[in-house]
């Protein structure tokens, strides 16, 4: 009995320790170990799901006062859908994001995003994870509790005389390809815009990353008969349509951070019937006019 206990106890302790070590975690990792004032460096936010499968993540990161966030890259992220693309605010000290991955992700070193940081002055420095939320790929979007936040703490030294400034880059090479448009649909649902028609869209870009979308709605015939403003506006999915009961073509354009463009055009499901009705009405009216002219000759 004593021998069995001696064997089981180490195994139990190993299981407890390894579970603590390999629990799901989000970590901040930097590219350069030795930094001095003026240098820039790349920081990565990486995810270990510890065997869990997640389909969404959102977070807020913050830097110390002597650092500034100069740019972001998320085209090579495990996340491909971005309800809120990485955004820098608060005098370049705060970075926030919300992203998703269709089909879910499970892994030990998944890249959430990368960003470029500059050390503006010497001193104790940090890039901290103020908030991180992970959501399970379980059909219910259950929040994954107990995620460890591994923030980054380091020191920036004074720049020595004649020492060159290190310039890092987020570039993955020249980006000449447009984003990949996912399914773009026009639909209506009682839970969205009070049951009115809307357009929903998404896209992915595995190089520089999706930057923004714009939407334009062109009404059938009206655009030829009256002044029609074709100015597009940046938009987030879903977008309520202006022409609910009139046929229109909805064009969604997506741009990546290298300003490459892709687009897709869709129509409301009932537009074909409305167009057919309009055409039939015009033909009927034309026939009546012809008959009346023939009658009075």
UniProtKB/TrEMBL annotation:
The chain crosses the membrane at residues 272-291. This is Cohesin domain-containing protein. Residues 1-23 form the signal peptide. GO terms for molecular function: carbohydrate binding. It comes from Candidatus Taylorbacteria bacterium RIFCSPHIGHO2_02_FULL_43_32b. Keywords: Membrane, Signal, Transmembrane, Transmembrane helix. The keyword Amino-acid biosynthesis does not apply. InterPro entries: CBM2/CBM3_carb-bd_dom_sf. Coiled coil: none annotated.
């Amino acid at each position: 009995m004593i021998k069995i206990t001696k064997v089981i106890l180490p195994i139990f302790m190993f299981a407890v320790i390894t579970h603590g070590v390999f629990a799901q975690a989000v970590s901040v990792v930097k590219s350069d170990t030795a930094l001095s004032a003026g240098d820039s460096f790349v920081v990565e936010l990486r995810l270990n799901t510890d065997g869990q499968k997640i389909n969404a993540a959102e977070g807020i990161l913050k830097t110390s006062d002597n650092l500034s966030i100069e740019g972001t890259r998320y085209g090579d992220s495990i996340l491909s859908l971005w309800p809120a693309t990485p955004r820098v605010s608060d005098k370049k000290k705060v970075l926030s994001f919300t992203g998703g991955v269709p089909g879910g992700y499970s892994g030990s070193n998944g890249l959430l995003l990368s960003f470029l940081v500059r050390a503006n002055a010497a001193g104790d420095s940090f890039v901290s994870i103020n908030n991180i939320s992970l959501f399970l790929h379980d059909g219910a979007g259950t929040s994954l509790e107990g995620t460890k936040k591994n923030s980054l703490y380091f020191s920036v030294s004074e720049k020595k005389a004649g020492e060159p400034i290190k310039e890092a880059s987020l570039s993955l090479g020249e980006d000449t390809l447009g984003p990949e448009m996912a399914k773009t649909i026009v639909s209506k649902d009682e839970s969205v815009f009070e049951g009115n028609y809307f357009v929903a869209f998404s896209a992915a870009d595995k190089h520089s990353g999706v930057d923004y979308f714009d939407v334009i709605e062109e009404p059938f015939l009206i655009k030829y008969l009256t002044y029609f403003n074709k100015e597009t506006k940046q938009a987030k999915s879903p977008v309520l349509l202006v022409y609910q009961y009139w046929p229109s073509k909805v064009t969604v354009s997506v741009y990546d951070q290298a300003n490459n463009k892709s687009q897709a055009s869709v129509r409301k499901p009932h537009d074909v019937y409305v167009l057919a009705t309009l055409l039939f009405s015009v033909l009927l009216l034309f026939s009546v006019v012809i008959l009346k002219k023939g009658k009075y000759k």
